[in-house]
Fold this sequence. Notes:
Blueprint: H1 6-18, H2 21-28, H3 32-46, E1 51-54, E2 57-60, H4 62-88, E3 95-100, H5 105-116, E4 124-129, H6 134-139, E5 145-150, E6 159-166, E7 168-173, H7 186-190, H8 218-226, E8 232-235, E9 246-251, E10 257-263, H9 270-283, E11 292-293
Helix pairs in contact: 1-2, 1-4, 5-9
Amino acid sequence: xxxLETRELRYFVAVAxxxxxxxxxxxxxxxxxPLSRAIRRLERRLGVQLFERDRRGVALTGAGAVLLRxxxxxxxxxxxxxxxxxxxxxxxxxxxxxxxxxASHELLRRLLDTLANEPGAAPVEVLLCEVGExxxxxxxxxxxxxxxHRPFDDLAGFDTEDxxxxxxxxxxxxxxxxxxxxxLTLAEVRDVPDLPIARWPRLDGSYPDGPGPEVRTQLxxxxxxxxxxxxxxxPASSRAWQWPEHVAVPVVDAPDVTTVIAWPPSSRSPAVAxxxxxxxxLRDTAPPSLAGRVPPGSPGPSRSDARP
Length: 308
């Protein structure tokens, strides 16, 4: 029998993460014997051993490692479904739009202004996050739609519309010699001994190798640049968070960045559809301050009947 109950999965995950039945039982607020029996029943139903048990303790088997990975995704999906269901049943709820703090500021401002003037448009709550967090917030149901950037953000599994394409700039300390340049190349910004490029965590939480400081928040990054400890290369439109102690210099050979609007493919929300249509209509009227280009072949406002 292949059906698994969420209760069983929660029990299993607790034991797999604690690797101790007693601690797992305390975490779950239950006695240890029924937890042990539940895990035994789960192993019998699946026909595999999930844990190695001996005097030294508990360890996951290969099959257990697979179930731990799959169970986490399944429990996250169930939690996301519950959040979306509660939100869909709230007639007064806001539409949650998530974006990186400081990113695509001009686009975001124009989009919110457009929606505010549209009769019957749902109110929009803006959720500002750190780099790389939009995908998680969309998947777990905390957000309905996101502004994201290709190739940096995780777009796997989402429906998307390209909005505009732009170049990148180096953000440097104002007093650094490179800050007086009209333009730079990637080779130049990668070869500054006194100003190594900051390193962001990968999707798995690890950091790439390199001499630059490890950062997790844009506030950390901004202060390190202002102190002359690092530099970074970002989309030109993300300069909105630039401090007076920073200078932005175009990096002429940096890869282009495409700003996209993304949403879960399962969404059938008229409010999400309206927001996506508004964003694609703004695409063809981007002001010079965005320094962007409409992606080649992108459909224009005629896609207004599109539905996420």
